[in-house]
Amino acid sequence: MKLPSGPRQIDKTPSQRLLQVIGKDMRIIVFGFRSRTKQRRAVYDALLRCTRPARLWDLYAFACGRSRFGNTNPKERLLNEYFRLLGLKSPQASARTIEDGSSVVSNECWRISNVNSNYTMCATYPFALLVPKSISDIEIQQACTFRARCRLPVITWCDPGTRAVLARSSQPLVGLMMNMRSNADEKLVAALLTQLIGTKEQKRKLYIADARPRKNALANGAMGGGSESSANYFQSEIVFFGIDNIHAMRESLSRLRDYVDTHGATSSDGMSSFLRHGGWTWGGGNLSSMSASVSTLGDSGWLIHVQSVLAGSSWIAARVALESATVLVHCSDGWDRTTQLVSLASLLLDPYYRTIIGFQALIEKDWLAFGHPFSDRAGMPIASGSGSMPFELSRQSSTGSLSPSPMRQASGSFPSQAPSPSHAQNNYSPIFLQWVDCVSQLLRMYPFAFEFSSAFLVDLLDCVLSCRFGNFLCNSEKERQQAGISDSCGCLWMYLADLRASEGSSHVHYNLFYDPTKHEGPLLPPAAALAPTVWPQFHLRWTCPSEAQAGEVEAICRNMAKKISELQKAKEVAEAKAKETTSTVESLTVELRNEKLSSSSAWNLTKRARKEIAAIKRAMQSLGCKIHFSEDSECVGIENNAAGIPQKSIYSASDEESSGYFQHDNKSDMSVFDTVLADDPVNPITRVCESICPLRTRDGGCRWPDAECARFGSEFVGLKANFNALDRLSIYDSYFQPE
């Protein structure tokens, strides 16, 4: 590519040689090189080696080494989705259940069959199929021969309430005269028509939705294919949706890319759309040029194709939801347009698929497990022959020919060779991109129904096209298993989940307006609402970056949500601190109350001790002893003055009663010591006992066994004097009998 020749300049600027790189993400980059250098050829060869490697193992997903985003077994995830559709919550799929066949379960109407566990019946179908319970595995093998690529009718979604079924297959092999029939195929399709709930004999209606234009279906009859006859299938109706093939979609996206590059704010040639065609206003400054620009967008046909897929999917969802009918969808091979329709209809019918986890399950079931050729459609290399592969895995173009490709043959060895650029280009088609575009249109129409945002869809497409992960490599589940994709490459879903975990619910992948209570049932958009627009977040992000933003309102709402989240966290921290402070205050209050109780108890003990000290002092004085106490109530001296003690106590009983210190005791015995203290030779009370007791033996024994005094080696905590007994007793009385 060379720059267009312009008017001659005096300063003769050296000419440049350009290299244009067209990306699958709507990006067009132009590199300029100086003339008479070989840099452009070297860069071109390097880019060619990276974009079209000869082997699958040369892709970045393998060359980057083991990823930290480990991939789990996709078969387990498929079985878990089957269990959910059957309404079985208890079983959980594992590698052991897959190996021993215990995953083959059923409900009242449907069952999981492992007839294709080794991919011998159909190489592009998953290892497990959801089929009617009344159909045996032998009948399934007989029915598959009547469908192109052996892709027989199987269940892809079922309503547990109404038992309505959404099924998929490939075109029937009815031949040129449209007169070929198969009893096994007709029996299998009839088994999809279960009895309507609430009726005795009436069966539900069958709609056979052919995604192709009617003329294309008739043309395929010349090569052995075709479409069903409603006369051969009970209570059926044939509907054609008129969706074009992969080649029309490829050309349409190319024209759309040229349009946004030409009329964008920053085009790849460096010229702004405001200055194009010699004018400084948009579109050249005149109405005719503006109309021409708008018609160029319409001529691309992209929005028309998106509308066709949306309309077909909405029609299918309405038949299932409103009539409880069974719909069988197919195109030619059953892996392009069929996948678009059944997955989009499931998205409209089942709110679970409108969550992030459910959306992942939907893609893995309808796109990956049922054999959409991602390698061919995205222009990626196929798994060619190498030391670890028994034969080359190639795939034939879906141009209508029904001859089996080398991959479909049971055995055989083929030489390893890289696909030619023309072959890869003929198979390339943005089928998955178009489907994600349809999802973005539904997200625009129903902003409260989806948990994920448009940014999530953009990141998903970028990851699919980046070759960083192995989920979307190869053309079928069988090829990915043979290549060891799940063990060798990273998982896209784990990567996206890790991104969301970093910011939580405030991440851009989450839809701020999501409210599952507003759309708990199916979404049934009317025909008037199916008016798609250019998806700005994807199609315009390189040429119109400011217009491609999510929108000022959404950005403001997201910022407000972040602030609310931060305030909520601050509120939780403040509440935790307040709770902790309250707990501390309560504990301090309890401690203060205990301290008050302890202080009151200590004060009572102090008053009691003072009273007892006064009593002891009086008792000792009545015995003829003088006790001197210090200010801290310790005994500092005792004087024995027994000779001068009168026979009567200096205190009378009336004086005691009038003093108010002690209560009168009617007991006849004298209890001088009532409470126990620790026996301590230093204790003043012990010294008093030893000094005044005339009946202690020399060995320290006490000869007063009946009295409540302090014995040698015993413990007491205080003394209590019985003044009544002391008044009645004289120290000269023979109260104690001598030995």
Strand content: 5-15%
Number of helices: 24
Any idea what the radius of gyration is? 48 Å
Low-pLDDT residue intervals, each spanning 5 or more residues: 1-12, 278-287, 385-424, 642-682, 704-708, 710-720
Overall pLDDT, averaged? 78
Structural class: alpha/beta
Helical fraction: 40-55%
Strand arrangement within the widest β-sheet reads 5-6-9-7-8
Number of strands: 13
Distance between the termini: 140 Å
Inertia-based shape:
elongated
**Main beta sheet, described?**
5 strands, mixed
Layout: helices, strands, pairs:
Layout: E1 16-22, E2 28-34, H1 39-51, H2 60-63, H3 74-86, H4 95-100, E3 110-113, E4 129-132, H5 137-143, E5 154-158, E6 165-168, H6 183-191, E7 206-210, H7 214-221, E8 236-240, H8 246-262, H9 287-300, H10 302-323, E9 326-330, H11 337-349, H12 356-369, H13 374-377, H14 421-427, H15 431-445, H16 454-466, H17 477-483, H18 485-488, H19 492-503, H20 536-539, H21 552-622, E10 625-629, E11 635-640, H22 653-659, E12 675-677, H23 684-692, E13 716-718, H24 723-728
Parallel strand pairs: 6-9, 7-8, 7-9
Antiparallel strand pairs: 1-2, 3-4, 5-6, 10-11, 12-13
Helix pairs in contact: 3-12, 5-6, 8-9, 10-11, 10-15, 11-12
Characterize the structure shown.
The chain has about 750 residues and is an alpha/beta fold. About 40% of the residues lie in helices and about 10% in strands. A 5-stranded mixed sheet has the order 5-6-9-7-8, covered by helices on one side. The protein has a two-stranded antiparallel sheet with strand order 1-2. The longest helix has about 70 residues, at about 550-620. One of its GO terms (molecular function) is phosphatidylinositol-3-phosphate phosphatase activity. One of its GO terms (cellular component) is cytoplasm.
